[in-house]
Request: fold
Amino acid sequence: MAETSAKTLLEVRDLGVAFDSEGGAVHAVNGVSYTLAEGETLGIVGESGSGKSVHVLAMLGLIPRPPGRITGGQVLFEGRDLLNLPERDLRKVRGGQIGFVFQDPMSSLNPGMTVAAQIVEPLRIHLGLDAQAARARAKDLLDLVRIPNASARLDQYPHEFSGGQRQRVMIAIGLSCRPKLLIADEATTALDVTVQAEIIALVQDLKREIGMAIIWITHDLGVVAGIADTVQVMYAGRILERGPVDDIFADPRSAYTLGLLRSLPDLSRGRAGRRRLHQIEGAPPDMRTPPPGDPFAARNAYATARCLTEPPPLAQAPGAAPGHLVAAWYDLPARLAEEGAAR
Amino acid sequence: MRPEPSDAYPLLSVRNLSKHYPLRTWWGGKGSVFRAVEDVSFDIRPGETLGLVGESGSGKSTIGRAVTMLNPPSAGTVAFEGTDLAKLDPRAMRRVRARIQMVFQDPYAALNPRMSIGDYVAEPFILHRPGMARAERRDEVEGLLARVGLDPRFARRYPHQFSGGQRQRICIARAIALKPSFIVADEPIAALDVSIQAQVVNLLQDLQDELGISYLFISHDLRMVRYLCQRVAVLWHGRIVELADADSLYDDPRHPYTRRLLGAVPVPNPVAERARLRDAARMPAVDPETIGALVEVAPGHWVAGDPHP
Reply:
C-alpha cells in the first residue's frame, strides 16, 4: 500500500496535450495533475479518447510533433522536468529509470532482430554493460519473466514466441534496467484471459522483488481492483476521480465511475437474479469541440446547470477517505440517497 | 425478462462439424492438416442465445463462419430449420441467407466508407426484395435506424460521422432488415468502449425479446456471456470441452480448462479480486492431449471425459 509518507517519484502538473487536425485542434489532455509515490501502483482507467495513453506518451516524449504538441504543464520525475529535458537525457530516462510496456508486443518488438539483441540494447545504452555481461543479464531477465529454457530462446526471433511470451519479453525489456517506474499501457488487453492472469501474477511478483512504482493503464476495472493502490478515472482528457482503490469501488463519487461499475455484469449472478444492464447513454464528446463544463455532464443524469458551463476542479470529496478526489459539482452520495428514499 | 426457450425443435443443428486446413510443405507437396475445429456438435433452439467462449485460436470464429456457410465446414452437417445447408441449390440458399445474418467485431471494417448508411442498411432489400418500391424501402430503413436507437435523419450521413457504438448499431440495423431468425454475433462488443458495451448488449437482448431472434454469441468476455446466454459452449483447441446451461457451467464448472478460464476473470471488487489473484496463480495448467468425448454428467451438462481421470 502506498503510504502518505513515501517519497514522491513523479509529479504531473497541469499537463495539456493537443493534436492539430484539419477540423481544428483536438484537446486530448486538459490540465492533468497528480503525484505518484515510490513503490506505488496507480491504476488509470478510461476509454478511448480519455487521454490516459496520450498523457504518458507525452511524458516520455513519444508523441509525434507535429501534429501533437504540449500545451502546458510539467512532468517532474525525481524533481527533473521531463518535458524540458534534451532528447539525449530523456532517452536515458526512457527505458532506463522508466520502463514501459505497450498493448501490442508484436509491433513493439522488431521482427528482424533476435530477442537477445533487443534486450541487450538498452542494457548497453543505459547501464554501459559489455556484450558478454549484457547477454548474461538478458538470460537472467528471461528467467525472471519465467520463459523456460532462456539461454536457448535468446537467439530466437519474436515470431517464434507466443503472444503471451512476447508480452513477457516486452516486460523483460521494460524491467531490464531495474526501473523506478514501470508504465504498462493496456499491456494485457490483447491477451487471452488466462495469459493475462499469468502476466499480472508475474508483475505482482516482480514488484515485490524490485520494488518499482507502476502506472497500469487499462479499461478493465477488474484488473485495477486487484493490483492498484490508487485508482484514477479519466474521461475526455481530464481526471474525474482519484483515490485509494477500496474507496473508489466502495464509495464512488463521480457519476461516470458509478456508471462504469454498474454497467458490468456480475460473473456470479445467475439467470434468476438477472436485471437489464445499466447503460450509460450517449457517447464521449468530440474533443475538437469539447463541452465548456464537466465533460461527462451530457451523459450524466445527476448533472446540475453549473456542470454544463463550468468545469469542476479535482478536489477532496466531502466525507470521503483522505486523498479521495472528485471533479464534480453534484453531490453523488446525496443524490443516490434521495433516489433511495424516493423508491 | 423472457421465458426460457421451450424444448421445441432446434433452429440450428450442428453435427460433427470439422474444419481442416491443409498445411503445405515447403516444396508445395501435401503436408499434414491443421485441425481448426474438430468434431463439434450443438443445437440452438428458437429464441435462444448460445454463448461460444474460448481463447484466441480455439476455433470460435471458424465455427461462426462455418454455420453461416461463409466458410463451409470440411466435414459434418449444419441443418437450419431442419434443412441441411450443404444440400441446398443456390436459389434456396439465397432464401436461407436472408434468415441467417452476421454481426462482426469491427464495425469500422464492416461499413463501406463511400456508402451512406441509409444505402448500406437498404442493400439487403435491393438484393432480396427487388420489387420493393423506393418509398417503401426508405420507410423501412428509417424504421430500422429508429429501432436500433439512431435518428432516422442520419440516413444520408457517411460512416466516418459516427462513433464505434453507433456504427455497430448500423450493422445491427442491416442485419435485422430481412427479419432473420438467427444471427451469429462474432465478438460484437470487443472493439467498443466499456461505456458503450452495455448499450449494444441491451439492444441485442431487446431485439431477441421482440423478434425472437436466436443468437450464436461468440465472445471472450466471460462476464457478458453469462449475462446474455442461456447456454454456453467452451471451446478449447478446436473442440467443445464443456456445454451446459449458463448457470450450471458458471456455478459448477466440471472441465479443468473451464475452471481455469473462469478462475482467470478479474472481479471488479478489490477485496474479492486480491483474493482471486492469490488463488488463481496457483491453478494447474491443463494438457490439451486429454480432450475426450462429451459425456452428460447432469441433465444437459456435457463435459469432455478425461481418458486419464
Observations:
- The first strand of chain B starts at residue 12 and ends at 24.
- Chain B touches chain A through 47 residues (CB under 8 Å).
- Residues 1-6 of chain B have pLDDT under 50 and may be disordered.
- The domain at 12-99+178-304 of chain B is CATH 3.40.50.300 (Rossmann fold).
